[in-house]
Write a structure and sequence with these properties.
The complex is a heterodimer of chains A (132) and B (96). By secondary structure, chain A is mostly helical. Chain A has three helices and no strands. In chain B, helix 1 runs antiparallel to helix 2 and helix 2 packs antiparallel against helix 3. Chain B has 96 residues and is mostly helical. Chain B is flat, with a radius of gyration of 18 Å. The chains are: A mainly alpha (132), B mainly alpha (96). At the A-B interface, helix 1, helix 2 and helix 3 of A face helix 1, helix 2 and helix 3 of B.
Chain lengths: 132, 96
């Protein structure tokens, strides 16, 4: 009886391990696809678009796999904190890089003509209550 | 076995990001590539923790992610202010 329970538990652990490693492999494949996107695309915005995939979905997949592999509170709290911080910060970082290069017009001039890049420079100087 | 394959795939992705980090051509491209490299590093740390069943280095992954975010934001401000420093509207103190 004890051996069968142990075998069941060991089997469940092995199944959880396989599920966890497959989730992590999916997240890592997103990172690989993003790296290929860095090499293949020729434009900053397309590169940022590729690079933000492992930063959010890849993190979620890898963290889910880690929680499945290590079902303890000590690991789960740290991992949930990690994925929450990443979901808050990754889009902000990508947006800031894109906005900075948009404003200084350091994108490809043949694809984004500079007269079509409108920048509302006075809008930032308005107090917040006058923004309508 | 699958963990080792995951680490290998993360290594390949980080290598591609590193190639873009070296090639450039502009600073913004390098910033994005460095962010991707650090993302791969943090994911590899989490994967290795799960492989060893140890929670010891999970905090390092959180710290790496936060450092990557801080560096990206600071470089974005630098990109934005370094070339528009001369022609900011009067009263704008972004370049200060």
């Amino acid at each position: 009886m004890a051996t069968s329970q142990q075998a069941t538990k060991g089997g469940r652990d092995a199944v959880a391990d396989v599920i966890a490693s497959l989730l992590m492999l999916a997240g890592a494949l997103l990172a690989l696809v993003a790296g290929v996107g860095q090499l293949r695309s020729d434009d900053l915005f397309v590169r940022v678009h590729a690079a933000t995939k492992p930063a959010t979905l890849g993190w979620l997949l890898v963290v889910t796999g880690a929680v499945v592999a290590m079902p303890t509170w000590a690991a789960a709290t740290k991992l949930v904190l990690a994925v929450a911080l990443q979901f808050l910060t990754a889009p902000v970082a990508a947006h800031l890089v894109c906005r900075a290069s948009y404003r200084v017009r350091s994108t490809r001039p043949d694809r984004y003509r500079s007269e079509r890049l409108d920048i509302d420079e006075l809008g930032e100087q308005l107090p917040p209550d006058e923004l309508g | 076995m699958i963990y080792a394959a995951t680490l290998l795939v993360l290594f390949l992705g980080a290598s591609a990001f590193l190639i873009r980090l070296v090639m450039g051509p502009r600073l913004a491209d390098r910033v994005v590539a460095l962010d991707g490299v650090l993302t791969c590093v943090a994911l590899a740390i989490i994967t290795n923790s799960a492989r060893e069943g140890s929670t010891r280095y999970l905090s390092v992954a959180v710290v790496v992610a936060l450092v990557a975010f801080a560096g990206t934001v600071i470089y974005a401000r630098f990109i934005e202010t370094r070339s528009t420093d001369g022609d900011l509207p009067a009263g704008d103190e972004r370049g200060a």
